[in-house]
Predict the structure.
Amino acid sequence: MATSSELGTDWQRSAGDFSCSSCGRKRLPASEFSKKQVEKALESLRTIPDKDIRQGPEIQQVVYLSGICKRCTEEKEATERAEAQAKREQREESIAEAEAAMGPPERVEVSLGERPFGMTPSKAEGAGYLVVKVSDGKPAARAGVRLGWRVVEVAGAACGSASMEDTQAMLKAAELPASVVFEAPPAGAEFCTACHRVLAAPHFSRKMRTRPPERRRCTPCVEASEADAGAEGDGAEAEAAPPQAAGGPLAELRQLCAETAREAELVTGIRAKGGGGRGGRGRGGRR
């Protein structure tokens, strides 16, 4: 049973009827829970199908609210951070082993008989003529050119260290059929369509490696994209969220705690007094 020091009408510190569904603690004040958990608990009251709505002087209503307390939330987040760190360390170890085992790029020579060849190069600085798109039905696609291949020779002239613009000029000037030599990614490597880099396979998740080559992205690019999307979503939600009305969820909670204190007074004989501000705790005395 709640003691006189636990009873108060201050919604943040009232004994209330909160419990944590994770650690099982009961009779917790609302301050033990985040604002999001409190609002979620209050919202759940509206979805109870068989809620008893009878009222009267002889009917006592006891409403129990449950959520995940701040302590359990922090412990869960700490565990998730530790697990994520362990996965990162394991991935870095696998990457180092895969990079050490990778051989040199494979040289592939093809003949392109008509223009346009149907290849789109990367615009990344210093990448040379790195193929990032191959158009279906064009000479490059028919010759088997793949994403991540880099042009290193055109019509017998080396261009491995040339810029994309210079290599493109060589391709345009070459007589047809044009003999083009590419460097293909070595075994155990994949091409990321986001950062336009050839990386060791462990840089990609297992699920990502099952996707078509034109949709494969390395894990750092995926994580960066998700982080950006989350930040944009939070900003949009903050702009769209209307201001809390005076009778919103927090007002409901204050009323609920006040009713709980009144019911406790009837049962225990302890009179509940209003909390002294945000940090105050009500003190009761026997009649």
The longest helix spans residues 70-101. The radius of gyration is 33 Å. Confidence is low (pLDDT under 50) at residues 1-15, 274-287. The helical segments are 35-45, 70-101, 139-142, 164-173, 206-209, 219-240, 249-268.
